[in-house]
Amino acid sequence: MSPQGALSEKDPIFLIMDASPVVMLSAIERLDWLMEPCGTIWMTDMVMEEVTRDPESDADPRSRWLAYARSWIETNKFRIRRVETKTFETYKLALEAWKARGADPLAKPDAHDLGEASIIQTLKSFRGKIQPRQTIVVLMDDADGRDALRGMRRINLDVFGTRVFIEAMDTSFGIAEAAHAWQAILKVIPTAGSKEDDDPLLVRRAI
């Protein structure tokens, strides 16, 4: 089935995602589903850092599927475009300065929301360059990040949360196992169910 039938009437150029969808799909070892909409994935350097870095403690459940996520990214490195951003560059410099000062755990640079910031920075570079028939597929669960995308100008975006994206894998792409995938994710990541409203958000601003 065509990607347009699953997402929108427009032609997707590429898919870009926040860390949350990568973590949740890694938990059930189904990152290949990210290739379904258009086969082209962009991942910002900040998001790649978030999903591949070592957990800060053994209590971090991500450690259980980190090896899978790293292996998948390495295996598909020629299909994933790593996007360099000023967001990550600034974070890296802050991290290096923190280590030089003794790496006090209480003073570690905060990476919260930087994945979303790097995506927004990347998308801004496409404003005014998207044709009316084209769109960019964005996977993002964070409510504040989605609100920021809602206000973007001169661009077409199809924005989905992980749960709705998984539903599309079942209903539009015919992947039968996706019908129960969200329940499988909740078994290993119970907090995934607390995500805020992730209904599809279509931004239609390209003219």
Q: How many DSSP helices?
A: 9
- State the helical fraction: 40-55%
Assign the structural class, choosing from mainly alpha, mainly beta, alpha/beta, alpha+beta, or little secondary structure: alpha/beta
Tertiary shape: globular
Radius of gyration: 17 Å
Strand content: 5-15%
Largest pleated sheet: 6 strands, mixed
Round the mean pLDDT to the nearest integer and report it: 88
Question: Separation of termini?
Answer: 27 Å
**Helix-strand sequence:** HEHEHHEHHEHEHHE
| Low-confidence region ranges | 1-6
Strand order of the biggest β-sheet: 3-2-1-4-5-6
Q: What is the strand tally?
A: 6
Q: What does this protein structure show overall?
A:
The chain has 207 residues and is of the alpha/beta class. The protein is built from 9 helices and 6 strands, in the order αβαβααβααβαβααβ. It has helices spanning 3-6, 19-27, 45-52, 66-75, 86-100, 114-124, 143-150, 162-171, 181-188, and strands at 11-17, 41-44, 80-83, 134-139, 156-160, 201-204. The chain has a 6-stranded mixed sheet with strand order 3-2-1-4-5-6. It starts with a helix and ends with a strand. Mean pLDDT is 88; it is low at 1-6.
